[in-house]
Amino acid sequence: MSNELTPEPVPEPVAAPPTGSIRRPKATGLAKGPAKPGVAKVDPILIADAVQRRFGGLMAVDVDHVEIPRGAITALIGPNGAGKTTLFNLLCGFDKPNTGTWSFDGKNLAGIPSFKVARMGQVRTFQLTKSLSLLTVLENMKLGAPHQRGEGFWSSLFPFLWRKQDNEIEDKARELLARFKLDAKENDFAASLSGGQRKLLEMARAS
Ligand SMILES: Nc1ncnc2c1ncn2[C@@H]1O[C@H](COP(=O)(O)OP(=O)(O)OP(=O)(O)O)[C@@H](O)[C@H]1O
Ligand SMILES: [Mg+2]
Question: Domain 21-119 classified CATH 3.90.25.10?
Fold first, then answer.
């Protein structure tokens, strides 16, 4: 068997021009016909249209159209004050735009508050990491489990139900830690992680 990996064709990243407004990219790659052999059909996970956010007289975000490809690491770049954080805040439901619509994985997210956006699968991490330093890496992961039911009526009567749920959460947490190469650190305090490792922990927790 060959050990060679066939590289996946990755769509061109869409970069913001330095004016702070994002214009419609020339080729969005929304394929209309059958994909050419060897060329990935671009299937955007996020599509935003006509998103504007004004602060008084300042137009902080003016996005005509933007698409974020699925399964690719995409960066939004621009100078200080270009509107990157404001756009993130809008798309994640932390702020409301003056105009605009956007969808994530086919679901309309415009006007949906941040906690619901997260439940719909679009999870945000912040530039400054937020982990609980005096809990272990594994404990931090377990706190982030999306479907914790807590100690409900039945699990208080039958502790094995609670243990089963806890074991499932722990298994999932370990699987994610392995994927983000933090499995060797699961019993370390989060405080002992490097900045980059803390970011990885946040991304594992958001997964
Ligand atoms: N809540 C607010 N009220 C008024 N003006 C704001 C507010 N938030 C952002 N702005 C302004 O909107 C513009 C865009 O700010 P934003 O924080 O989105 O920029 P950025 O691209 O994230 O910059 P940086 O690279 O410095 O983080 C800036 O001029 C900023 O002063
Ligand atoms: Mg910013």
Answer: no
